[in-house]
Structure formats: C-alpha cells, structure tokens
C-alpha cells in the first residue's frame, strides 16, 4: 500500500491567509526553517494506478498539480481518483468536492450517515453537486465491521468511530454523535500491513487505542502542541480539546500516548495547525518529537507499507 500526503496542515493551511503568528509571519519572511503546507488530505493506493482520496481539501487543485500520479492522461478527461472517503464534514475536509465537479460520472463517495446529513443540510454541498457530476454515495458502517471500497480491491477498511467534534455549522457541534468523526484503519490484503489515519482525534478511547496498537503506521492528529495554544495567542477562545483535537502535550497528551505504542510502530503527526511550534524545524518542540521518534508529516510525503 502506498500513502501520499497531499495536505498536512489543519484548517487554514500554513501560512494562513490572515495570520501573522510567529510561524506564519516567519514563513512569509523566510526567517523560519519550515515548509508551507496545504489543508488536510491523503491519497491511498494498492496498485499505484487507482487512488482513494481521503478528504477533499479546499487546496485540492494545487494538491493534484503537485502529485502527477493522479493525472494519468489516458483520455481527454481523466483522473486516477477512483473514489473518495470523508472522515468528517469539516470545511477543510469537504469543500474540495466543489473543485471535482467536472468529473465525467458521479463521484464515488464513502461517508457516514451523520457526515452525509451535515453535507446535505448545514452545508448542502452534496445536493448542490447534483447540478454538476453528482455523487454516488456509499455508507460507511459504524459497527467496526470491515468494508470494501470496490475500486480499491487490494485494501480493506474499518471505520473507528471516535470523539472529536462536528463542524461549527452542524446541529451536533459540541454534542457529537457516533459517525460525526471516524478514524480509518486500512489493511493491505497483500502485505497485511495496516495504516491508522485520524487527523481529528479528541480522545483515545479503547477502540481507538486498539486500532492504533494494531497499526504499522499511525498518521494522527497533530493540530496543537498545547491545549491553550490559540487562546494564549489571542487567536481564539477555544482550546484544542474544545475543537476536538487532543493536544500533543500536557497530561494524557498525544506524545505520551505515542510513547506507549509498540516499538515497531511508525508515528506521524498530520493536520498541523499553523500556530504549532513543531512546524519550525529549529524549535525545541520539533527536537523533542524527533528524540521521541515522532515524525511530522509534510506535503508530498510518501509512505510505503
Ligand atoms: C477542525 O479540524 O477543527 C476544523 O477543520 C477547523 C476549521 O474548520 O477551521
Ligand atoms: Mn480540520
Ligand atoms: Zn499562523
């Protein structure tokens, strides 16, 4: 299985258009050792020819240009995107669907029922797309049963319902229901190796921990270093946990959890907010992660497993 990171930043990207935090300002000025990053999305493939897009970021057109494997150029209108899957209904994970409206047939889309409801009500993007290519929607089961995505026969998928948060426009905001957010366990039928992907993860409950422990690679929520990161900056009144993101530090933070994984597990943070000090590769926080064997995903990162 091949995993390609299309976008490694959280909502807003890096730098964020209206932000002058130390990171965003430093990146623009060229004074920071850091990479620019687009918003949260990965692509998965078992054969290198057909790809599953996990999340459709508002930066998708740039991401497609930066990853030529997704344009095999076999016909006048073509794509290697065989299917899409959404792990939640957040803006940074869904609005890229608008950019795929020229598809020649309905977009094959896997999502849970609560995500489908948010994307046909509060943010009715899936209804609107009926006026363009349309959507061929498939339901993601929430009972931890493995499911198939027909165009990806070499991969087996399991959704792990988890605690994060529904989007601000959702009737479930701050009262999420199962299926508002999932983690995705993907197993290669060929090698048996497993990826656990959860860019929005607020709490590591037993089924999530079991999935993490069973994986060869965890590609996991790296939004904020500190719980009060945005509050301390004066950028928001919300803590990372309020937004459904487990911070890396503090008691019970992500770094502590990752240290408990089996030594063979590759640990990679993704969905990094532009305020997070780990984006600065000269920072003490980046050095601390490196010493702990934790990687920070970047746009274009390729993972073979
Ligand atoms: C989140 O991950 O909490 C959201 O994507 C934030 C946002 O929409 O900006
Ligand atoms: Mn997000
Ligand atoms: Zn910033």
Describe the structure.
The protein is of the alpha/beta class. It is built from 9 helices and 13 strands. The protein has helices at 22-29, 60-65, 91-94, 113-118, 125-128, 206-214, 229-233, 254-259, 284-291; strands spanning 2-7, 41-45, 51-54, 81-85, 107-111, 135-139, 155-161, 182-188, 194-198, 217-221, 266-270, 294-296, 302-304. The chain has a 7-stranded mixed sheet with strand order 6-5-4-3-2-1-13. The N and C termini lie close together (5 Å). The structure holds D-malate, manganese (II) ion (MN) and zinc ion (ZN).
Measured as a percent range, the helix fraction is 10-25%
The unique ligands bound to this protein are:
D-malate, manganese (II) ion, zinc ion
Shape: globular
Q: What is the CATH fold-level name? A: Metallo-beta-lactamase, Chain A
Radius of gyration (CA) equals 18 Å
Which band does the percent of strand residues land in? 15-25%
Distance between the termini: 5 Å
Q: Taking all residues together, what is the mean pLDDT?
A: 98
* CATH class value: Alpha Beta
Tally of individual domains: 1
Largest sheet: 7 strands, mixed
Poorly predicted residue ranges: none
User: Helical element count?
Assistant: 9
Spatial order of strands in the largest sheet: 6-5-4-3-2-1-13
């Amino acid at each position: 299985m091949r995993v390609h990171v299309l976008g490694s930043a959280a909502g807003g990207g890096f730098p964020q258009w209206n932000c002058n935090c130390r990171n965003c300002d430093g990146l623009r000025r060229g004074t920071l050792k850091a990479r620019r990053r687009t918003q949260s999305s990965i692509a998965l493939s078992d054969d290198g020819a057909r790809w599953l897009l996990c999340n459709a970021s508002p930066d998708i057109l740039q991401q497609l240009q930066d990853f030529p494997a997704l344009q095999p150029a076999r016909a006048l209108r073509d794509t290697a995107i065989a299917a899409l899957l959404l792990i939640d209904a957040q803006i940074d994970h869904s609005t890229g669907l608008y950019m795929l409206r020229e598809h020649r047939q309905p977009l094959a889309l896997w999502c849970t029922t609560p995500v489908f409801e948010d994307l046909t009500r509060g943010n009715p993007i899936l209804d609107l797309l009926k006026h363009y290519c349309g959507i061929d929607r498939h339901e993601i089961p929430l009972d931890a049963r493995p499911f198939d995505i027909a165009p990806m026969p070499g991969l087996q998928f399991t959704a792990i319902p988890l605690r994060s948060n529904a989007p601000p426009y959702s009737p479930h905001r701050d009262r999420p229901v199962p299926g508002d957010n999932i983690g995705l366990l993907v197993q290669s039928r060929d090698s048996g190796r497993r990826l656990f992907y959860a860019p929005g993860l607020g709490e590591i409950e037993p089924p999530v921990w079991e999935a993490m422990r069973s994986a060869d690679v965890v590609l996991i929520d790296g939004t904020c270093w500190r719980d009060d990161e945005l509050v301390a900056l004066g950028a928001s009144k919300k803590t990372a946990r309020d937004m459904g993101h487990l911070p890396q530090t503090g008691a019970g933070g992500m770094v502590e959890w990752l240290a408990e994984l089996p030594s063979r597990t590759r640990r990679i943070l993704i969905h990094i907010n532009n305020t997070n000090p780990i984006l600065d590769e000269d920072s003490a926080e980046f050095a601390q992660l490196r010493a702990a064997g934790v990687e920070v995903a970047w746009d274009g990162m390729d993972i073979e497993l």
